[in-house]
Description:
Distance between the termini: 12 Å
CATH superfamily of the domain at 2-179 and 290-309: Vaccinia Virus protein VP39
Amino acid sequence: MKIVSLFSGAGGLDLGLIQAGSEVIWANDIDKDAVATYSKNLSNHIVCADIKDVAIADIPMADAIVGGFPCQGFSQANLLRTVDDERNHLYKFFYGAVDSKQPKFFIAENVRGILSLDGGNAIKRIVKDFENAGYIVTVTLVNVADYGVPQSRQRVFIVGQRKDLGNAMCFCFPAKTHGKNGLPLPWVSIKTALNCYPDPDKSNEYINHIYSSYKVEFRNFTGHRATDPDKPSPTILARGNGKGGVCAIPHYNGKRRLTIRESAAIQTFPDNFEFIGQMNSCYRQIGNAVPVRFAKLLGQELARLERDML
């Protein structure tokens, strides 16, 4: 399928869709470092601009529109979150593109906090918007650890299918492949995922294999909890506004933070995927991404639907 990607960031979602056989024909993000990373690793079809400055008429027609519209206003980590947060309304730009272009499908990703915002009324309004635009809409909360990603990361996926496609074209959300209790397969631990990487303080050939010197102090607070080597990694974090220091997860050895490369591996980016920018920017790009492995599963379902349309 031909894909338009909004709020694409460094391209985790797009890369997974491409690996599954889709073609991303146009992408957009406001972050210049993320756009530089995307251009270096994927394609130069990405436009660096505030989506509010992009004319919907300039966005090409596509089979699907995808994107993780900015979610920091929805995040449970944002204790001041409110339905009036400007960032919570950026989904309207995503909606406007879908409503105008009428792709067969759309996929939107967001944080778990979107489900409880305004007592659950925000997600109801979002779903109603897309239904009024002509789509059958499903909302699914997933932990990507259940799909072989070595990370406990809960995210919401809003999937829309144009009503005129009929029941024969039903988008089936990917079935879980892993589980806490080992069924169908056991969760992938952070140690299993990272054991192949050499000591970053010694000479090595891995790109982005450097880490923040931010001191490891174990406290019962996000980003400061000890990492259990036998469990999936805690959620790889991002500072959405780009301000302040980095927020990198402690390595399971308890002596340092994860490197950029290790953080990317937890997000299932390939080792040859190079992140551009200062250290805090690279960490942020990774933390904002959709894990590539999970995105590929979504892409495989789109590929199945494309075959059924032939």
